[in-house]
Amino acid sequence: MINRRTAIPAPAAAPALGAPGAVVGSAPGAADLYSSNTVLYADPALVEGVDYRRRHRRRGIDAPGAQVVQGPQDRSASSRTTVIAPHGGGIERGTSELCLAAAGYHPADLAPTPPAGPVHDFWMFEGLRSSGNSALHVTSTHCDDAVARALCSGSLNVLSLHGCTTATAGLEAGARAVLVGGLNSTLRQYLMEEFAAVRIRAVNVSDEKEFAGLDPENICNRSSLGMGAQLELTTELRTAMITPGMSTRVHMLPLFWSFTTAARTAIQRLETTQPIP
Fold first, then answer.
1. CA-CA distance, 263 to 122, in Å (whole number)?
2. I want to staple 122 with a disulfide (CB 3.0 to 4.6 A). Which of 5, 36, 103, 198 is the partner?
3. Are 276 and 156 in contact (CB under 8 A)?
4. pLDDT digit string (tens) for 18-77?
5. What are phi and psi of 216, to 5 degrees?
6. Which DSSP string corresponds to 32-48?
């Protein structure tokens, strides 16, 4: 079951979506090699910056390499939501770029996009290998990265981005769709409505087992309210959003911006009406 830096360095080279070595989605029931992020980080055979990397930003202040987020949590309108990609880079291709854009940063240069904001906190774990990134997959219920948990627990809302295949999602071949899950039913509803508004097929999986994201241990539900939302995008949808660009960077297609704008609008709707405890 899938439950499911003053300056941040430019993205390292990773296989293009659909290219050899690119993992486009994790199969339900696949056994992870690592039982948690902590176990993965402790493996002497892995080198951070070569095999994988972690990136995060809190309240617009970067903390490269920090393993603990300290200090009181700011609950202003610009930092009430955290966007995460637990399987970014070459693990579930396209989710790193989607995470950054949904948080309000351009994937190419981290410039606030749109310039007027708002921006949200973000965290991601990325596979950097040219192949074999699936070995770095840690299922969302076992994500125990200290920064990820601190950011999520200090936020009212969490939006988690993932990749899947049509086969594992139980959809027809070639389907461009996003599966919407998580325990925050209001955010789920807003996401469904905003995706429909831009004609992106969205499937509510709140009653399904594979991609529902209903486990309280799922990192998407580790907000201060104990609930969040999880998006699983099929390979075909991500391929229609992102194509290989010049050098090591990807090119974001119009559908990418329609998707991330819809997600940001859903977050804004939630934050506008959400009382702060």
1. 14
2. 103
3. yes
4. 443 344 454 444 578 999 999 999 999 999 999 999 999 987 555 433 333 333 344 444
5. -55, -25
6. PSSSSHHHHHT-TT--B
- Count of other CB atoms within 10 angstroms of residue 64: 12
Res 1 pLDDT > 80? no
**Cα–Cα dist 227/62, whole Å:** 26
Six token digits for residue 37: 């992020």
| Phi, psi dihedrals of residue 228, rounded to the nearest 5° | -160, -165
The β-bridge partners of 177 are 201
Per the DSSP assignment, residues forming a β-bridge with 221 are none
Which residue ranges make up each domain of the chain?
37-273
pLDDT grade for 238, boundaries at 50, 70 and 90: very high
Superfamily of domain covering 37-273: Poly-gamma-glutamate hydrolase, zinc-binding motif (3.40.630.100)
For residue 104, the 8-state DSSP code is T
Share of the chain above pLDDT 90, in %: 70
